[in-house]
Amino acid sequence: MEPRRLSAILSIDVVDYTQMMQADSARTVEMLQAVFEEIVAPAVKAHHGRVIKLMGDGALLEFRAAAGALQAAVQIQATLAQSRFASSGTTSIALRAGVHAGDVTRVGNELFGDALNIASRLQSAARPGEIWTSRLVCDLAGSSGTYSVRGEGLHSFKGVEKPIEVLSIRDASEARSLNPTAFRARQSIQYLKTKDGVSLAWAATGEGTPVVKAPSWIGHLDLDWQNPGVSPICTAIAQHHRLIRFDA
Fold it and tell me: CA 75, CA 171: separation in Å to the nearest integer?
């Protein structure tokens, strides 16, 4: 048994792996192998990591530094989103990722420690295409990363004694691209009926904890994104939260 050491662990998982295998197992295996060779492996090497374990639906990766784990995760997700694997019909590939840091111990070829367990829990809780990390990892990494950070609140995980403050990580270039026009295009306008039969229009855009914005005296769910007095407020909120508005 080797002495304990501090490591940053990145856990990645393929979204809807079981369904993909049932639909077309041969193509799924071929694509996943290509994703690892063309996207995952180069990112791991570039940020001084190594593969701990490969599974059919994901991988566990170890890094010497928290910053390296976060940068590798951002590179993997950003590269995958722009690749041919993200737009391949029924077998398109999406990943979830989780990052945590802590003491680990090597026994033979196996690695043990809470860092692996918590990274896997974070990965399982993340939404498709997202990276979830603990506050500890961001504190260790500092502020030099090329990514933006959004709070996801405290989360309790099975087998973990205390709640963990969770942050989601986004490529900084993607965050900068989320301007009023982009949010306007992404928002979903829907309708509901109140108890007294009034039809009410409402819209949601952005991701994260929900924030409901009260309507202005005069407003329009679509045209507000072009209003210089309202658009900056809506954009600032939607950068970090799920912005919900309704038509007065």
Answer: 8
